[in-house]
Design brief:
Blueprint lengths: L3 E6 L18 H6 L6 H11 L8 E5 L14 E4 L7 H13 L4 E6 L1 H13 L7 E5 L13 H12 L5 E9 L1 H5 L5 E10 L18 H16 L5 E4 L3 H9 L10 E4 L2 E4 L4 H10 L4 E5 L7 E3 L8 H7 L4 E4 L2 H4 L5 E3 L4 H10 L1 E7 L2 E8 L2
Parallel strand pairs: 1-2, 1-4, 2-3, 4-5, 8-11, 11-13, 12-14, 13-15, 14-16
Antiparallel strand pairs: 6-7, 8-9, 9-10, 15-16
Helix pairs in contact: 2-5, 3-4, 7-8, 9-10
Amino acid sequence: MSRRIGILVNPDAGLGGRLGFKGSDGRALEAREAGAKDRSGPRMKQTIEGCKDGLSSIEILTCSGRMGSDWIPKNEYSIVYDTPQMTSADSTRDAVKALVSSEIDLLLYAGGDGTTRDIVESLQECNAGNLPLIGVPGGVKMHSGCFAASPNAAAEVLLAWLSGDLLEGRTEVMDLDEELYRDGNWSVRMYGEVITPASPRWMQGAKMRVHAAAEDEVLEALGDHIREVFIDDQDMMVIWGSGGTLRTIAEEVGLEPTLLGIDVSIGINQIGTDLDEDGLINVLTEHNGHCVLLVSPMGGQGFLLGRGNLQLSPEVLRAIGIENILGVVTPAKMLTVNQLRIDTGDSELDEQFAEKKYLKVLQGYRTTRLLKVAVD
């Protein structure tokens, strides 16, 4: 009997990323009305195209339309769930139940942490907690360890699992409270564990929040360096990435940054707060001087771009220039980060990062080092 693979797409996942929504839970219609384009579906399509030669001997079970069949080559699947016109978390849960009832051997899905939570809840109701999962990263934020590092990495994991080359292990399902997140508060909690193929290279692992109380002096020194090199240059535009590290440093130099958004300053003047993709393109277009993008990688996962900062779209990154991107990594975070992962969503741009092989990171006052770039 051939293996049965379930394929599921949350069509609303990731819609608010470039708009600076910091999540799409409950805001999908608003995002679409603002011009947001599908993210999770095309990334599922990329995964399937990446492993299509290895899928000829398996049976694919999926949902109709946007939740599945729209992203799979014709006549290569069976429909077990009819997608409603308006989808919701209940649609995801119902689809999972239908796929489990069809006796799938693994679930390949595209979405974010909210999608994962809905899947886990449905699996628990079906007593199917041992069903292996592979997540294609399609949301704004992916803290859970069952996601592959990229759509192409998801294809590699699936092929290796089908070949019997990967063992399975348990990993954490994490999620961020989006209501608190949008108000600038960080509240991540563990919602359970799931089974996933174990691949340190291709799977991203769970995000860790890294904090060391003794790093106050390091952050102050980083602030001094950035002030002297960038802030004192009145023609230099500084684009501040999201996260606690950069927020603390920005406050050190006299700005009022957001914790989770993208802010912009020229000298000591903050000219943009919590900007979306269009806002960033506008300020970059209007600026005639130099610019630098400061970004801090996610602890544990090492993602510099593609997780929680989708406002930094391929168009924005090209306007900034790869050579003007500077990572900021404290010693405590450096203990969990040995490479800088890049997932811009644009294969040509990812390849440009890969060709550089290394990116510079600032880790102290006038102290930099090079970290290897990973484009999985």
